[in-house]
Design goal:
The chain is about 40% helix and about 20% strand. The protein is α/β, with parallel strands linked by helices and about 350 residues long.
Length: about 350
């Protein structure tokens, strides 16, 4: 072999090695974005699953499970405080079937605990997370994840309850203990958080979560906030992502929450699913984020159009690890908002 041939041979090997490394680095920098969907048990899990385009979502959070006063999530084959569409507590067998059905498509399935409104059947979360009962509560959640064949647990303790638990010094120790137990089983621990003072998970809890789902919606609603504004504008998504990045959430663990619903004011129905908005007002109306006139005292509906969902998804692909949706039964039969997510997250 001549010196020139030897040089070319070595160079070709080096170039190939560099290309492989570059491909690996690109993969590391750009994993597939997560697409987290909440499935509300109280809407009917079977119906919600049927209404979902399951080719898009990577993670599902079954919502919401709460413990009874004894800290138990399951009793005699039924959830102690997780109602279905009829108000009856779901059976463990029914939940197992839903979990297996969703996992069959390759998705991760978690159970979401607590929720924005704690039902009357729930035990006292503050007492259950206090030092003397914390280990038992962690063990109960671990047992629940094993019993249902789940891939993890999502913590959705919100608002004043979150504030009270954190002020007592009990939130982060609970999260740390639960995270260690989940990781020992190869399972996930995630959370949902708001971005207002008093509604945010504490900074010292952030490292324990695999995903932080930011609820970037509900800036106003039927009984809060000044009417005349939007409840989930694009600018809010930008602010919320910047806030949580500054608070120390790693970009690949940060998930932008988006609404599949809207609110109405001054003569409009107060609560709307996107499905209902499209059925009542037609697709032309849903191409904008406001139906009616956006002002205090005016009759209007505020929601997210497919164009805004797509734009937010592009933002999340650029700055975060993916998107989250509350909640999946509210999309249209042709999956208009889900398809908008898919377009926004596309790397093509």
């Amino acid at each position: 072999m001549t010196n020139i041939s030897l040089f070319r041979f070595i160079a070709s090997i080096l170039i190939g090695f560099i290309l492989v490394l570059s491909a690996d680095s690109a993969t590391a920098r750009s994993p597939r974005p997560v697409v987290v969907g909440y499935l509300a048990a109280f809407k009917g899990l079977d119906l919600s699953i049927e209404r979902t385009d399951r080719s898009v979502f990577t993670h599902y959070n079954l919502s919401f499970a709460n413990p009874d006063g004894d800290g138990r999530f399951v009793r005699e084959g039924r959830m102690t405080c997780m109602g279905d569409e009829t108000g009856a507590n779901l059976s463990v067998d029914a939940l197992r079937k839903s979990v297996a059905r969703l996992q069959a498509g390759g998705a991760k399935v978690l159970i979401s605990t607590a929720g924005g409104v704690i039902p009357g059947c729930s035990g006292d979360w503050k007492a259950l997370l206090a030092p003397e009962r914390r280990a038992a509560t962690v063990a109960a959640l671990v047992a629940l994840s094993d019993t249902l064949g789940l891939d993890g647990v999502d913590i959705d303790i919100e608002g004043q309850l979150l504030t009270d638990i954190d002020r007592a010094g009990d939130y982060t120790p609970f999260i740390a203990a639960l995270s260690e137990a989940m990781k020992a089983r190869g399972k996930l621990l995630t959370c949902a958080t708001a971005s207002y003072e008093g509604g945010m998970i504490p900074i010292d809890s952030i490292p324990w979560f695999d995903l932080v789902n930011v609820m970037s919606y509900d800036a106003i609603g039927p009984s809060w906030g000044p009417p005349g504004a939007e409840h989930s504008p694009y600018a809010m998504a930008e602010r919320d992502l910047d806030l949580w990045l500054a608070r120390g959430v790693a970009p690949d663990r940060l998930v932008l929450g988006m609404p599949f619903y809207g609110y109405g004011f001054d003569g409009e129905n107060a609560n709307w699913s996107y499905r209902e908005i499209a059925a009542a007002h037609g697709k032309d109306a849903t191409n904008v984020d406001v139906i009616g006139k956006l002002c205090s005292g005016c009759r209007y509906i505020t929601h997210n159009s497919p164009a805004t969902i797509e734009k937010k998804s592009r933002l999340a692909a650029a700055k975060a690890g993916g998107v989250m949706v509350w909640e999946l039964s509210q999309d249209t039969p042709d999956h208009a908002l889900t398809k908008a997510i898919e377009r926004g997250l596309s790397r093509e």
